[in-house]
């Protein structure tokens, strides 16, 4: 006797439904899906795009950022290309973005302005654009209060107004922290002129997400060939160098409660931790470096958090959890540059306990960024 496909499917569905009822009756109900908060998700504004293109077209060689991102994405990208999609999705803070989140099962995106943010402009313009960008972001969050949260940008090249904007962003706009796109005028946050910004971040008790950008002019030359300046290599080298400068420069002795977030599985720092500890101790002993209160690895666990953005390697995840501690690892996608579905699948399939998975998917983000 043969069974029709329709009868088989009907019977199977009914059987599964009855099995689910039986499991529930026995106290074995299927656990609810864990909440997913993505913590490095990019956006842009039309005003920023225009300002970036003004600089890029006037002086294409002024910065490696121009060739690695601005012109390829925003200056008439080829229709149907990835760059064309990036441009459209970066500018969208409503329909397509929310639909992509729904399709992949993403509950919340923590939004931050894409590279290079406001950090390539002269100070007054940078400060004005930071205010406008944060207002634009706050309006999007107000339209989607359960789906979006935000990191505020500011102009490090204009420290006084930057501190004022940091305070406004937290106390008035409700932002969850700050985004700094690595170097500013080829300088890094260990430079004394940025001290007011670090003091403000510590006083406001909000983390700074230290996001990569193309290598600064002082280190850019070897990265100009083979498309090395972008996400394939240069971005991580730039941000990792920035973080190491902050550690070895004693920033976290001066600001012990300052929190820095690194994307992309820690920009290679977890791999380097043993050697950083080893060589820092040697250099302090022979007088080549000022002694630090802690070993670099201890600052990494105390002052840093790491996200998985754009990096879907199980082996690297294990390394990062070991170096940073499970309570300092957060999930991220790197939308729109990476696939939301792939990022979800990566963490769902990772060799983690259900408690560890929930910790990385949402608990750490809720705690560190104060996301309700």
What is the element layout, followed by pairings?
Layout (H helix, E strand, L loop, with lengths): L4 H21 L11 E7 L2 H13 L5 H11 L7 H10 L3 H10 L3 E6 L9 H21 L4 E3 L8 H13 L6 E3 L14 H10 L3 E3 L23 H15 L2 H4 L5 E3 L6 H17 L10 H8 E4 L6 H11 L4 E2 L9 H10 L4 H15 L4
Parallel strand pairs: 1-2, 2-3, 4-5, 5-6, 6-7, 7-8
Protein name: Hydrolase
Keywords: Hydrolase, Lyase
GO cellular component, one term: cytosol
Structure description:
One of its GO terms (molecular function) is carboxy-lyase activity. This is Hydrolase. Pfam families: Amidohydro_2. InterPro entries: ACMSD, Amidohydro-rel, Metal_Hydrolase, TAT_signal. Keywords: Hydrolase, Lyase. With 372 residues, the protein is an alpha/beta fold. It has a single domain, classed as TIM Barrel (Alpha-Beta Barrel). Helix content is 51%, strand content 8%. It contains 15 helices and 8 strands. The strands form 2 sheets. It has a 5-stranded parallel sheet with strand order 4-5-6-7-8. Helix 8 links the parallel strand 4 and strand 5. The longest helix has 21 residues. The N terminus is likely disordered.
Task: Briefly say what this structure is.
By secondary structure, the chain is of the alpha/beta class. The protein has helices spanning 5-25, 46-58, 64-74, 82-91, 95-104, 123-143, 159-171, 195-204, 234-248, 251-254, 269-285, 296-303, 314-324, 340-349, 354-368, and strands at residues 37-43, 108-113, 148-150, 178-180, 208-210, 260-262, 304-307, 329-330. It contains 15 helices and eight strands.
